[in-house]
Every structure is written in C-alpha cells, then in structure tokens.
Specification:
Length: about 475
C-alpha cells in the first residue's frame, strides 16, 4: 500500500492497456481518452495499484503526486466516466449515399480478384434501377434536412464497363440534386483502364476516384492483366498522369500478394515519386475469389515491408494507410457493412458489403438485406439489419482485451465469416498486422507531440484520417478527401 493521506482517493478513469515494448519500457494507452505515453515497470505498477484502490495522493509533492498530476492531465485519473463509441441508427435505413454495383463484367482478369470478375455470365444494372437508388437517397437527404447526397460507382466488375448506365445515372443524379438544392458528390472505384474518351469524361464529371494500382509497373503487371494476359500498367499510369495534370482527386489502393511483399517499399516510393494521390492504402490480398489458393500475405513480413514503405512515403510527404490501423479513431464498427451501407446489385438487391455484389455470393443471405419493391419503393429485412448492426466490436469476447479495439472496430466482418464461418470470432492473421501498425501510430503520435505523451488527435492526422475503410464514411466527422474502397 502506498502512502495514505486524508485527501480524496484518486480514481482511475480510463480503460488502460499496457503494451510491452522492450526491456522495462511499456506503452500505456488509454484509447477512449486518445492518450498514451511510454513508462517503465514502476508506472505500470502504480497504475495497477490505482486500479486496485491502493493509491492515495499524499500532497507532499513527491513522485506519486507528480505521476497523479500527469495522469490527471491525460484524463486517466479523476476525469469521470468514459463514453465508448456507440453508433445509433434510425428504425429504417435512411441512407443519403448509394453505391451502385454497375456490372459484373470486367476488362481485366486480375490474378487475385475477390470477385473473380469476368467469369460467368455478366450482369449489368439497368438505368431504371440506378435511378431508383438515386431517388431514394435524394429523398432521404431532403427528409433528413441534409444538404448533400452521394453516388458511388463500384464493382463486382469494372463499373466503366456499364458506361451507358454510369453516365446517364450521374447526369440524372446531378439534375435531381440540383433541382432540390442538394450538393451531389460522385466517386468511382476503378481499375483505371479507360479509353481516351472515358478518361476525358471522368475528369470532367466525377469528383474523385479510388484507383487499384499495385505500384511498380512490373509488380502491377504480374497480377493485373487483360483477358489476353497483358499487363495493364501503361493504361493505369496514363490515367494517373492525367489525373495529376487536371488536379483530379484520387486515392490509390494497392493489393499486396505474398510475392509482392519484398517490392512494397519500392512500389510505394515509385508512386510517391511520380504521382500525387491524396491517399495510398496497402492491403494484403484476401484469399478469396481467384486468390483463394494463393499463399497468405497477412504475415510478419508484410508488417516489416509496410514499415519500410511507410518511411519511404513520408519522405515524399505521403502517409501509407492500412484499413484497420487507425489509432485515434473511435468506433464500434469496422465498416459500413454493419452500418446500413446502401449498395445495389445489378439485379436490385440491397447489399451492405462491397464483397457481396450479387445473389450468388456464399454470404449473400447475411449481407443482402433488402430489394427493390413495387414501382418505386424498397423493402428491407428488419431482422437482417438488426443482426448486421449488432456486429460491433464490444460484442466480441475475443476483442475485449485488444488495445486496438476502439479503432479497429472488429475488422472486416466478411473476412471473419470467411475465416470462421458463423462461429465465434477467434481472431485472424490480420489481427497481428492491425496491432503492430496501430502501435506504430501511437508511438508516432507521441513522437510528434514532443516525445513525452500524446493526448488528442494530431491536427494533421485528424484532417486526413479515414473514419472507416468504406465509402459511406465520407459522411463521417472526418471525411477522407477520396474514399478508398476495401
Ligand atoms: S470491409 Fe469487409 S465487411 Fe466491410 S464492406 Fe468491405 S468486405 Fe464487406
Ligand atoms: S482482436 Fe483483431 S479484430 Fe478484434 S479489435 Fe483486435 S485487431 Fe481488431
């Protein structure tokens, strides 16, 4: 028992995680206070005593009082109860953002494609269905008194392969929004293999794009090939150069296979040295679709390569991101899949997940939660919506002791289903990557804040951080300049 004084007992007022660094150095992290510092075993023991009610301020200006004062400054002591993030939903989904899976056709045959696009019969969304989706979000924005709505063109294939619907839908959406005094934002997730005419149109009409590009031409071309097996880098890099010339907003989404891990840093440097993307995100390839049998890239070597690539990106003033490492963000969900994402399949089902873009997906019964109904309405399955909304990190026993939980949000639910089926979540290989990279971020925040402690988001980070990995987060408190799609 530490020295007792007659004063009020100091109370630990934060959820604390102690993360061992090296000998006698520990990262002390209070995620809900956005606070952290590096301490020794003495501080860790002090915190344990505090938690056990075995510390009292003695008021003699000694070491314990100094430590208590420091902890009060970080809201770790005597700051009252914490408020964990908790998303509140309306009874019925009222999205102001629609994602249109315009087609399952694709002009590429990427070796790791999650959608195995190009295989099977291609299906295209009709203009009528796309308009119905637009009408719904425009109506919701008006009902909710908002001044903004959003249309996103996405895959299951390459959205520009359904060019007539894409262009006509955007023209329609702009007319509808303008007539009602709403601002409309339109984003495109694309492989950036366009004709010259398409490139002109995109630069003139779309607000931003998320471009799939794996970096060095030879790395990109190893996987991102045409049906004839030719690399697509020349077309993609031409599009990026044009985007830069026009000051068009875009982010780059890199997919990293096991074979490409050793080239990740060079690839990131190549992109940083030659182009001006608003964001660069690198994710290990998922083992689904055409990549189902590929070796895992969710490895320690990915973390090592990511760190090296991050260092190179910073030399050019860029930040490399990984979707689930986002220290300082507070959320109980990973992505919009559990927050009423309103995405439409070509056949008119409503999906909450970017990887479930048609009715034949093995996980369609979970993520497809509605459909077009009657002449112009929508029908939603309330039970499915409630189930999806319940997939929060605080409901996962496995995540309870994880320091990254309030920023990770429980990671990709689709990925968890692929790994564990519908059984109890028991972590994935991504968890190690998430924790390592989140820890790096916290240490970087401490360093940026002067090297002693971090408390509150660094302004520069807050301005760019993605609230979550998915496009609907453009509606969030820290909208990314260009949403990146996972
Ligand atoms: S992050 Fe995972 S759950 Fe969320 S939309 Fe993407 S694939 Fe689906
Ligand atoms: S255990 Fe894994 S999924 Fe859960 S919060 Fe931690 S890193 Fe995220």
């Amino acid at each position: 028992m530490r020295v007792i004084d007659t004063g009020k007992l100091p109370v630990l007022s934060a959820e604390i995680f102690v993360i061992p660094l090296e000998a006698n150095r520990f990262l002390i992290y209070a995620p809900l206070r956005r606070a952290a510092f590096v301490g020794n075993a003495g501080v860790v023991n002090f915190l344990a005593d505090l938690k056990g009610g075995r510390v009292e301020g003695c008021g003699d200006g000694g070491n314990d009082d100094e430590t208590l004062e420091f902890l009060r400054r970080l809201e770790i002591v005597d700051a009252g109860p914490e408020t964990p993030p908790h998303e509140v939903f309306p009874d019925e989904p009222e999205p102001t953002s629609v994602t249109l899976f315009l087609t399952t056709a694709c002009n590429l045959r990427c070796a790791y494609c999650y959608a195995a696009a190009g295989e099977g019969r291609a299906r295209h969304m009709s203009l009528e269905l796309a308009r119905r989706g637009v009408d719904f979000v425009v109506g919701n924005a008006l009902r909710r008194g908002e001044d903004h709505c959003e249309v996103n063109f996405h895959g299951g294939g390459e959205p520009t392969r359904n060019w007539p619907t894409l262009t006509a839908t955007l023209a329609y959406a702009r007319r509808q929004a303008e007539a009602r005094g709403l601002k409309l934002t339109a984003y495109l997730a694309t492989n950036a293999v366009f004709s010259a005419r398409q490139l002109d149109w995109i630069v003139a009409h779309i607000d931003g794009a998320s471009v799939s590009c794996d970096g060095l031409p030879e790395v990109h071309d190893a996987n991102r090939v045409t049906p004839a097996g030719q690399g697509s880098s020349a077309s993609v890099l031409r599009a990026l150069r044009r985007f830069d010339a026009e000051n068009f907003a875009y982010g780059i989404r890199m997919t990293v296979t096991a074979a490409a891990i050793p080239r990740l840093a060079d690839s990131v440097e190549y992109l940083c040295a030659n182009f001006h993307p608003g964001q660069i995100q690198a994710e290990p390839a998922y083992q689904i679709g055409r990549g189902a049998l590929a070796p895992s890239a969710e490895t320690e070597t990915f973390v090592v390569a990511f760190r090296e690539a991050q260092g190179r990106a910073r030399r050019y003033g860029h930040e490399l991101t990984f979707s689930a490492a986002r220290a300082g963000t507070l959320t109980d969900h990973f992505c919009a899949a559990t927050q009423d994402l309103f995405a439409l399949t070509p056949d008119g089902s409503v999906s909450s997940c970017y990887e479930v873009f048609d009715e034949s997906s093995p996980r369609a019964p979970i993520f497809l939660y509605g459909a077009a109904d009657g002449k112009d309405g929508w029908r939603f399955d309330r039970e499915k919506i409630a189930f999806l909304r319940r997939q929060t990190v605080d409901r996962r026993a496995y995540c309870a002791g994880c320091f990254a939980r309030w920023s990770c949000g429980g990671d990709c639910y689709h990925k968890a289903l692929v790994v564990h089926g519908e059984g109890e979540f028991a972590g994935t290989e991504r968890c190690d990557i998430i924790r390592e990279l989140t820890r790096d971020q916290i240490l970087a925040y401490i360093a940026e804040a002067g090297g002693v402690f971090w408390h509150g988001m660094p302004e520069a980070v807050a301005a760019t951080i993605e609230k979550c990995a998915c496009v609907s987060c453009a509606e969030g408190e820290n909208p990314p300049r260009v949403p990146l799609f996972v």
